[in-house]
Automatic annotation (TrEMBL), chain A:
Protein name stated in the entry: C-type cytochrome biogenesis protein CcmI
Organism encoding this protein: Neobacillus rhizophilus
Automatic annotation (TrEMBL), chain B:
Family: Belongs to the CcmF/CycK/Ccl1/NrfE/CcsA family.
Protein name, UniProt field: Heme lyase CcmF/NrfE family subunit
GO MF, one example: heme binding
Residues passing through the membrane, by range: 6-28, 40-60, 80-111, 123-149, 169-195, 207-228, 248-263, 275-296, 308-327, 356-375, 395-413, 425-444, 450-468, 497-515, 624-641
Amino acid sequence: MHDISIISMIFSAALALTCLFLILSPLFKWDTYLHLDSKNQDLATTKEALLTTLNEIEFEYKMDKISPADYKHLKKQYETEIATIMKEEEMISGTTDKDLMAEVEKEIEEQMKSYKNKRRDEK
Amino acid sequence: MYLFANAAIYIGFAVAIYSLLVITLGISTKNQKLINSGKGGTIALLVCTSLAMLSMFYLLATSQFQFEYVKDYTSSELPIIYKLTALWAGNAGSLLLWTFFLTLYTVMIVFSRKLKGNPMVPYISAILMANAVFFFFILGFVAKPFVLLDKVPLEGKGLNPMLQNPGMIIHPVTLYLGYVGLAIPFAFAMAALIMKNVDDFWIKMTRRWTIIAWLFLSLGNIFGGQWAYVELGWGGYWAWDPVENASFMPWLTATAFLHSVMIQERKNMLKIWNICLIIVSYALTLFGTFLVRSGVLTSVHAFANSNLGLYFLIFMAIAVIGALYVLMSRYNLLKRSAGEFQSFVSKESSFLVNNLLLVGAAFAVFWGTIFPLVSEAVRGTKVTVGLPFFNKVEAPILLSMMFVMAVCPLLAWQRSSVKNLRKNFLIPAILAVIAMVLMVVLGIQKAWAVIGYGVITLLFITHFLEFYRGVMARRKMTKEKPLTALYRLMIRNRRRYGGYIVHLGIAFITMGIIGSQNYDVETMKTVPLGGSLEINNYRLNYERLDQKREGINDIVYADVTVFKNGKRLGTFQPEKVFYGNWEQPSSEVAIISSMKEDLYIVLSAWEDDGKATFVVKVNPMMNWLWMGSFMIVIGALFAVWNGKYGNVTPRYTGVRKEVA
C-alpha cells in the first residue's frame, strides 16, 4: 500500500537507535551527580548592584532629574548600605586571615618544636 | 519517506513522554542520571523535529502529491521558494514548524552555558517538555502532516495566491518564533515558583529571551500588516481581524511584562503581577492558536475548520490552571519582602501606568474579539465587532501610552521631585504646544491628529533631551568628544537606550497610523481608455489595457501614467491576476511610495470597450510606519546585544525605616 522501502526502514531504525542512544547513554555514565548550586546571593554581587545604583543616581542628578536634597539623601542611603557590606566583607576576610595566621603560626610552632627536638636528639 | 517522516513524529512523541516522566522522576528522587537522560531526550526531540521538517521540505520541493499536505498546498508550477514555504501554509505544517522551534529553544536552554549546573534547569525542561508532549500529540494524532492519499493526483491544489508574497515567507516564521519564545520566560517563572525562588533570577536569565520573543512578535505583526497592505488590495494594513488580534494581544501583554520586570529587578516589586503577566502572555499565544485553528470566528486568514482549536483550548486551560495553582501556593512567599512605591513621581510609577494601559488595551482587544462568541452564547446572534469599536477604544489608549512614554525619560527611579519634573517638562511642553498651534495653522485640524502629533512632538523632544543631557553629564565627568560620549553612554546602558530607540520607532509608527487613518483619500472611478482621473494633486492617465500570460496565470493589466503637480512620475501597471489553479483572482496593486504619502492604485474592473474602473487611494505617511518598524528592530537588537557593560542592574532598596 505505502512506499515502505528498505531504505526508509533502515533510516527509521537508525533514527530510533540514535534517540535511544541519546536518552540511554546518560544512564550508564558514572561521573554524574546532582549539581546543587548553593543560592549564592553573595555580598560582592549586591555591592556591585548598589554601586551601579549609586552611579545611576549620580548620573540622574547630573541630568537634573533629582533634586539636590533627594540626591544627598539617596546618596547617603546607598553609601551607608555599601559601607555596611564592605564592613561585612572585611569581617569575613578578617576572620579568614586570622584563621590563616593562626594556622601558619601553629605550623611554624610545630616546625620549631620538631627542629628543636631534632637538635636535642643530635646532641 | 512515509515511514521515516511518520517515525520521526511518533518516536518524538514517545521520547517526549519518556523525557517528561524521567525528568520528573529525577527531580523527585534527586537522581542526576535520570535528569541527564531526559536532557538527552531534548536533543533526540530536536533530531526528530529537524528530520520531520527536512522530510516535509523534500516532499514539498519534489511535489510528491501522494501526500495530502503536498497536494493541498502546492502545485508543480509553483516557484521553489513558495513550494518550500508551503510548509507553514497549512495547519499540520505550521504546527510542525512550531514544534521544531519549541525543541530548538528547549535544547538551547537545557544546554545553555549560563545555566550549567543550575537546579532550575530540570524544572524548566519538564515544563517545556510538557509543551512538547502536547505538540507531538497534536502532530501524531490530530494534524498528521504526513498522510498518504489512496490515489495519487496528477496535480496539487496549489498555494493560495494571497500567500505567494515575500511577506508571507517570513511573517508566520517570525510570529511562531515569538509565540514559542514566550514559553521560555513562562517556563522559567513556573520553575522559579515551584522551587520557591522568588528573587529576580528567572527574570535576569530570561531578559534576552523575552526581548527576542517580543521582537519576533513585533516583526510577525509588522510583516503581517505589510503583507495585507501590498497583497490584499484594500489599501489598509490592519483590520482588527480576530487573527490579527490573536497575535496583537500577547504583544501587548509581553510589552507590559518587559517594562514591569524592570521594576522587579530594581525595586523588588510587582512580583505577582509579573508572573501573572507572563502566564497571561503565554496563555494568549495558545488562545490565539485556538482562535486561528478552531473556526469559531470567521477571519480572512483562519485555517480550515478543524477540531484542533479545541485541543489548544484544553491545553491552555490546563496550563493556566496549573500555573495559577503554583502561583497561589507561593502567594505568601511572593508577598513577603516585596518593595513599595515611595513616590508617585518616579520612573516606576510611570511604568506602572504604562502597564495598566497596555493590559487595558489587551483586554479591550480581547473583549472585542470574543464578543461575537459571547453574544452568540447569550443572545443567540453573532454580533460582529468592527473596526470602529477597536479604533475608538484603542486610539485614546495609544495616545495615553505615547504621553507616558514622552514623560518617562524625565523621571528618575525611586524618587523624582515634582519641581524637577516641572523644570524639565516645561520647555518640551511649550514646544509641543507651539508645534500643535503650527499644525492647526498649516491645516492639520482634526482633533485626534493634532493631539496625537503634539504628544509625539513632546516624545521626540524629551527623548532628544535624554540623549543630550546624558552626553552632557558624561562629558562633564570624562571630557570626551560628543560623539564618543554618546557612543559610550549608549553601549554602557544598552537596555535603556535600546528601549528609547524602540520608543522612537513606536512614535514613527504612531505618526504613520495617525496620518494614514485620518488623512487618507479614496476615489473609485470608471475611466474610458485615454481618460484620466484626479485625486489630490495627482493625475492618472489611463493609457492601455492589455493581457499577458505568466505560467498558468492570466494577467490583465492597465498602463497608468501618473503625474504629480503636473510632473510625470512614470507609468505604472496595476494588475488583476487570474490563476490557473485558483478560483478567486487577486489584485496586484501599484504603489508609488514617498516619505509624504503612498499613491495606491488598484485595477478593479474593466469592460469590453476598454473602460476600466480604478480604486485609487492616497495613504499619507505609510513609509513612516515601515521606518518605525525598522527602528524597533534596531532598538531591540541594540538592547540585547551582548556587550561588556550593563550586565549589572542597579538595585533600589527602598526607604530606610528610622523607627518601627
